[in-house]
Amino acid sequence: MFYGKGLLSDDGYDSQSMTGMRVAFFGAQAHFVYYFEPSYAWEAETGLTDKALASRSKKREGRVGHQNLGDLQTIREKKIHLVMDNRYPEANLPKIEYKFRENILRFYVNLYDPKLFDSLCQRTLWNCASLYDRMQRESLLPGREHQF
Q1: From which domain of life does this come (predicted)?
Q2: Which of 45, 116, 106, 53 is nearest to 79 (CA)?
Q3: Distance between first and last Cα of the chain
Q4: What is the 3-state secondary structure (H, E, C) of 60-81?
Q5: Which residues make Cβ contacts (< 8 Å) with residue 7, sequence separation at least 6?
Q6: Are 70 and 53 in contact (CB under 8 A)?
Q7: pLDDT score of 48 more than 80
Q8: If DSSP codes are grouped into helix, strand and coil, which group holds residue 127?
Q9: What is the phi-psi region of residue 113: left when phi exceeds 0, alpha when psi lies from -120 to 50, beta otherwise?
Q10: Sign (positive/negative) of CA torsion 110, 116, 118, 124?
Q11: Which of the residues 33, 78, 113, 130 has the least number of beta carbons within 10 Å of its own beta carbon?
């Protein structure tokens, strides 16, 4: 890594909590990705990690560099497990919560993998009750992979 872990304050970060996961993040959430260490991280707002998204014609007006937004179809094609913001409310993705310092952050599950989520949800800073409630309501088996 460019910066050694000792040079940055890691207070409140659940280091390596997303090992093996594929995540979509948006701009300033990069600091979480740095500590969570997912196996794949797609910056889905500006195209920082995706040349195709970065060079796509602008879809909306906004701050320079923030006019693009990756779409739900690409999230699914890239087999993204977690979306780190509710940029796709029409998808009605189930949420999990992460306690960062004194704040509760919500991340959204696109692709459920039982091995990855069981490991994440057992960690003390994570609350997956809403995800498991939704799976129970929809009669989804917790031991199987699910695309929401």
Answers
A1: Bacteria
A2: 116
A3: 33
A4: CCCCCCCCCCCCHHHHHHCCCC
A5: none
A6: yes
A7: no
A8: strand
A9: beta
A10: negative
A11: 130
Structure tokens at 9: 């304050």
C-alpha 96, offset from chain centre: 10
CB proximity list for 35: less than 8 A, separation 6 or greater: 10, 13, 14, 15, 16
Give the tens place of pLDDT for each residue, 59-77: 656 555 555 667 899 999 9
Query: Dihedral (C-alpha) 140, 83, 80, 110: value to the nearest 10 degrees?
Result: 20
Pull the structure tokens for residue 137. Answer: 């309501």
* Assigned token pair, 59: 């879809």
Pick the closest to residue 38 from 97, 71, 6, 84 (CA basis).
84
Which residues are within 8 A (CB) of 60 and not within 5 positions of it... i.e. 6 or more apart?
Answer: 67, 68, 69
